[in-house]
């Protein structure tokens, strides 16, 4: 009787996700074998496709069914090193989600001190990849944050705005950015063993840009001023009213900058179609235009040198004028999946 190696859709999805994470070719082959068998392929066909022995393919599947991904992939580390069991791996995963180590060697020391299990730095690097970890920088957030309930209340308020606004009404996210006339160094592909240098400017000139973006249309309304203050804010609000002449109400979500609360701004709003809606204090994570400004900096500033300030200003304006070319990326980036800090 032929063995039934078929797996559920959930199991196959788990295996595909693991396949995207692994870095070792041997691990990838093992997962490939189990996926192909799980899809209903024959053992011989899978073995021929992967240039493996049929018995090896069967053993991979048996290990997966017996102990899941842990047992299947732990085969990569058989040798002089001991192995963490499933419960220890779960405990390590939980620990790493609250503690950041700068090197794999530091994680290996923690594992040895906690469980008496020794890993080499390279072995620990492979294990970290298998657990779904990547070597990257953490996100910097303000020291003060509103409560989770306060943040959720804003999201509910935003959803209410969307559901109850008139057809021609619009919602925009507004904030200022101050890019400096100097390159921002970012990661890139550089020949191994070589150093790549980028020129920099000695001055500290910068642009002061205040803008508001419509998530539905990706329309950006912005202005560059010598300084961002109450007067320049009113000028931007007037531009918004001109940009949306048919809107009875223009809901502008913004932070708590002092110039938004100035008396002259409040006076202007008394007869304006603009409705300012401040975010909870210390919550840039809820202002989606922050993502847009970060994308703008990557496109215009990262690893780019502009000899003259006028060239830098022109490059910024050209980016804003050509947003259509970035529409697919921006629609993904500006999706309304608000990050709730501390959730």
TrEMBL record:
InterPro entries: Homeodomain-like_sf, RNaseH-like_sf, RNaseH_sf, Tc1-like_DDE_dom, Transpos_IS630-like, Winged_HTH_dom. Signal peptide: none annotated. One of its GO terms (molecular function) is nucleic acid binding. Residues 102-154 form the Winged helix-turn helix domain. It comes from the Bacteria. Residues 171-312 form the Tc1-like transposase DDE domain. This is Mobile element protein.
């Amino acid at each position: 009787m032929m063995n039934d190696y078929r797996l559920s859709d959930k199991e196959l999805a788990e295996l595909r996700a693991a396949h995207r994470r692994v870095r070792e070719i041997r691990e990838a082959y093992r997962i490939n074998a189990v996926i192909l068998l799980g899809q209903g392929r024959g053992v011989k066909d899978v073995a021929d496709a992967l240039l493996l022995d049929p018995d090896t393919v069967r053993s991979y599947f048996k290990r997966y069914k017996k102990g899941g991904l842990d047992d299947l992939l732990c085969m990569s580390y058989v040798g002089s090193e001991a192995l963490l069991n499933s419960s220890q791996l779960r405990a390590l995963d939980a620990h790493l989600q609250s503690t950041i180590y700068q090197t794999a060697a530091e994680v290996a020391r923690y594992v040895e001190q906690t469980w008496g299990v020794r890993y080499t730095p390279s072995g620990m690097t492979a294990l970290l990849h298998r657990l779904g970890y990547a070597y990257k920088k953490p996100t910097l957030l303000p020291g003060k944050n509103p409560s989770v309930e306060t943040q959720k209340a804003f999201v509910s308020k935003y959803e209410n705005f969307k559901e109850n606004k008139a057809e021609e009404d619009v919602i925009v996210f507004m904030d200022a950015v101050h890019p400096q006339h100097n390159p921002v160094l970012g990661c890139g592909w550089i020949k191994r063993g070589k150093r790549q240098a980028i020129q920099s400017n000695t001055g500290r000139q910068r642009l002061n840009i205040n803008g508001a973006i419509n998530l539905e249309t990706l329309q950006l309304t912005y202005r560059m001023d010598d300084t961002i203050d109450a007067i320049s804010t009113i000028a931007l609000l007037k531009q918004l009213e001109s940009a949306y002449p048919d809107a009875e109400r223009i809901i502008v979500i913004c932070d708590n900058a002092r110039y938004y609360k100035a008396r002259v701004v409040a006076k202007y709003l008394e007869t304006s179609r603009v409705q300012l809606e401040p975010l909870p204090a210390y919550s840039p994570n809820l202002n989606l235009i922050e993502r847009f400004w970060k994308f703008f900096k990557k496109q215009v500033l990262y690893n780019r040198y502009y000899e003259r300030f006028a060239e830098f200003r022109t490059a910024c304006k050209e980016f804003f004028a050509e947003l259509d070319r970035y529409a697919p990326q921006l629609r993904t980036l500006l999706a309304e999946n608000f990050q709730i800090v501390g959730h």
